[in-house]
Structures are given as structure tokens and as C-alpha cells.
Design goal:
The strands form two sheets. The chain has a four-stranded parallel beta sheet with strand order 2-1-3-4, with helices on both faces. Strands 5-6 form a two-stranded antiparallel sheet. It is built from nine helices and six strands. About 45% of the residues lie in helices and about 10% in strands. The protein has a domain of about 170 residues: 3-Layer(aba) Sandwich (Rossmann fold), CATH 3.40.50. By secondary structure, the protein is α/β, with parallel strands linked by helices.
Length: about 280
């Protein structure tokens, strides 16, 4: 009886040792199916990310948006919708880049008493300290897994200083540690003054209505998600315009959104290459 128990125990524990642990699979396991055609890390499996890195994808874009009031027509996630469209175009044009999950939580004003966007329901803000700590840990995670160029871009004004400081601090730390990953904040992405001038040159003349909204912003978001600008509701209410510009026909405004993404992508990619060339000197 004792001998039988010992044999069973050996067989049991031997079987357990050879059984793969689903929580900790072999990092070198072959991918059993073809990869999804996406540049968004959150849509990829860990194997797809690993294999993309092995094939030469060495750049990752870390983009910061926000959840804030944007007037009566645009969803609170306005900046995140914009970044969804913009980062995909940038990454695909670069050919060697992926996109980290968009960071939606950013500084939006003081809490007590509430200031800026924090005065409006739906806004979700974080302290500057929390924002910078979150960015730092995101970038550290990406560095650990083998990305050699980390790009920080943001679509909201309150995000810019934090991103710049985090990039500079991590860059100095990694250099001191002898690490090969480089990180840069790229300001060229957030240049709405230049975008406004470009739209003017293309014949888009706006008359500001006092909303946290404009034609370029609406067009970009419409090309990603029509509901996020309340297309049907505005048409029914006869308010399908912004800053004096009629948004109909829908297809025309969507084409404008795509053209704006194209313009911003070209400017940003040029900024990315410039930033890393400068750092390499």
C-alpha cells in the first residue's frame, strides 16, 4: 500500500512539473497563429509584441490625452479620440513603431477648490505628481521589454511640461545606468496654432463661437467615431456646424479629419527623427 502511494505521488508530481503554467508560459514559446494587423499594444497578444520587437520594431509611442469638458457637442474623451486616429497614422507611416495604451488621466486643474476643467462634471483629473509617476512607470515597463526609442506626445496643453520633464529625467537616469533605450518628448505633435494656420491656408476660415471645440478637432474625431461629436443629434437639432462651418456632408468632414491626421503625422514624424538625431550627438 505504501509502495503504491509513493509511486502515485512520483507520477503526480512529475506530471505537475511538466505541465505548462498558464500564468507563466515559456517566453520563447512559438506563436501558434498569425498576428493581428494592429499597431496598438493593448490589442496585441504578448507573443505578437515580442515578435514585433524581434523583427525590428524598436519604437513605441506613449500618448497622453484627457477626460474633460469640451463644450456641448464633444465627448469628454475628445483628446483620446484624436490620439487614437493620430497615433495609428504616425505608427503605420513610421513602419517600426507601436502605440502604448493612450493615457487618459492627466492634470485637469486643482481639486480644492476646483479650477479649470475640474469645475465641470465628467472631468477626471490627477495631480501632477501622479501623472508624472504614471508616465515614468509606463516608460520603465516599455524599456524593460526591449523598446529602444520611446516617444512622448500629448494632445492637451496641461500634459506637456510633465512629459518633457519625465523624458529628461529618465533619459539622464538610463544614460547613467548604461542602458541603450532613449526617450524623447516631441513637442511638434501639439501645435494647434500651426494647425490653425494650415487650415486657413487650405481655405478653412473659422469664426470662434466660444466653445472648447473647433472645426479641426471635430473633423478629426468624426473620422474616428461620429457619435463622439453627436452627429445625429446635432443634425436633428439643426446644429451641425462649428465656428461658422457647416459639417455636412459628413463624408467631406471625415475627409478633412483624415487630411489633418496626415498633416500632423508628417510634422510629428519629422520631430521624432530630429529629436533622436539630436540626442545621438
Amino acid at each position: 500500500m505504501l509502495r503504491t502511494s509513493l509511486i502515485c505521488a512520483v507520477i503526480f508530481f512529475g506530471f505537475q512539473a511538466d505541465t505548462p503554467d498558464p500564468a507563466n508560459p515559456d517566453p520563447d514559446s512559438p506563436r501558434p497563429i498569425e498576428a493581428l494587423d494592429t499597431v496598438f499594444i493593448e490589442e496585441m497578444t504578448w507573443m505578437e509584441v515580442r515578435d514585433a520587437l524581434a523583427l525590428g520594431t524598436d519604437t513605441v509611442i506613449v500618448a497622453t490625452g484627457g477626460i474633460e469638458q469640451n463644450g456641448p457637442y464633444l465627448a469628454t474623451g475628445k483628446h483620446n479620440y484624436v490620439l487614437r486616429g493620430a497615433t495609428e497614422m504616425i505608427a503605420r507611416k513610421m513602419g517600426n513603431a507601436l502605440v502604448a495604451p493612450i493615457v487618459p488621466f492627466v492634470p485637469e486643474g486643482d481639486f480644492d477648490p476646483p479650477t479649470s476643467h475640474m469645475r465641470y462634471p465628467g472631468t477626471i483629473g490627477v495631480s501632477e505628481e501622479t501623472f508624472r509617476a504614471l508616465l515614468t512607470d509606463i516608460c520603465r515597463s516599455l524599456e524593460i521589454h526591449g523598446f529602444r526609442r520611446i516617444v512622448l506626445i500629448g494632445d492637451s496643453g496641461g500634459n506637456q511640461a510633465g512629459m518633457k520633464d519625465v523624458a529628461e529625467q529618465l533619459s539622464a537616469r538610463w544614460q547613467d545606468q548604461g542602458r541603450t533605450t532613449r526617450i524623447r518628448y516631441v513637442p511638434e505633435f501639439y501645435d494647434y496654432a500651426e494647425l490653425g494656420e494650415w487650415l486657413e491656408s487650405m481655405g478653412v476660415h473659422q469664426q470662434p463661437e466660444g466653445y472648447h471645440d473647433d472645426f479641426g478637432m471635430t473633423a478629426m474625431i468624426m473620422s474616428v467615431d461620429r457619435d463622439a461629436v453627436r452627429t445625429r443629434q446635432r443634425i436633428r437639432a439643426r446644429r451641425f456646424s462649428i465656428n461658422g462651418i457647416n459639417l455636412a456632408p459628413i463624408t467631406k468632414t471625415i475627409r478633412w479629419g483624415e487630411a489633418i491626421f496626415e498633416h500632423r503625422a508628417e510634422k510629428t514624424i519629422a520631430g521624432i527623427e530630429k529629436a533622436f538625431q539630436q540626442e545621438g550627438k
